[in-house]
Hints:
Layout: E1 2-7, E2 21-26, E3 29-33, H1 39-45, E4 55-57, H2 69-78, E5 85-89, H3 93-113, E6 123-127, E7 133-136, E8 139-144, E9 147-148, E10 157-162, E11 165-169, E12 174-175, H4 179-183, E13 188-191, H5 197-201, H6 209-214, H7 219-229, E14 234-236, H8 246-254, E15 261-263, E16 268-271
Amino acid sequence: MELILFGTGAPPPRVDKNGPANGIWLKNKLYLVDAARNVSQQIVKAGFKVGEVDQLFFTHFHSDHYSGFGDFYVSRWLGGATKPLQVWGPKPVVNIVKKMLDYYEYDVELRIAEGVSRSGTDIEVNLLAPGDSFEVDGMSIHVDKGTSHGNVDDILSYRFDAEERSVVIASDGSPTDRLAPLAKGTNLLLAHFCVPHIYEKYGITRPFTPSVIAHHASAEEVANAAKEADVERLAFSHIAPPVTSNLEALEALSKFYQGEIIAGEDLMRIKV
């Protein structure tokens, strides 16, 4: 099992970081978690074929986590997909999928009229709620509301277990009392956090800055959750504010966590 970081950035576009999206590589099959900006290109850059991905899991629906969904859907289809795309996620997933399909219907029908097969255009939506457990291709998956993220009520953390290995993707926000039990004993926890002093260091003053700080985990909160869960390794990506370097994020986290820390980079592959 591997965790692949397709994108580790934030909402503002950067040349060195793409939008937040991850993959689970298991038994020669790729499972996608979130579909951010440029995710299709990142999948190709990592050496995979977009048309072979048929499972997509969403953590939540802030735009930076699904802005590449439509492009992924069409690229997957034109890339030779024949199976329906399985899309999993919290409650808004139903409406998000419907609106995306409506948006691309004109293009899809034009291409079908030109001779492209309709196979691969179907989406099967799988609604998830905190506490759900299920299996996909023999991989056990557990979800819970492991984080609290401002006014985003519908947000999920995922735990993937297979071949006696496990990885937990916490998602945005501050850890709730459900994250540590979900991540208990995991081989790898991927978390996101905010480094507030960076705003002052670089003179970043925006009306919504206090909300960003309040709605994201601190380095200390992430460290405490990782220690409580007794995780083997702790990785981070998607740090706020976006100008935060990995070194600055690592320094912030290392003050509270002395275990192994992995600073996430785009296209990094982490063996679980």
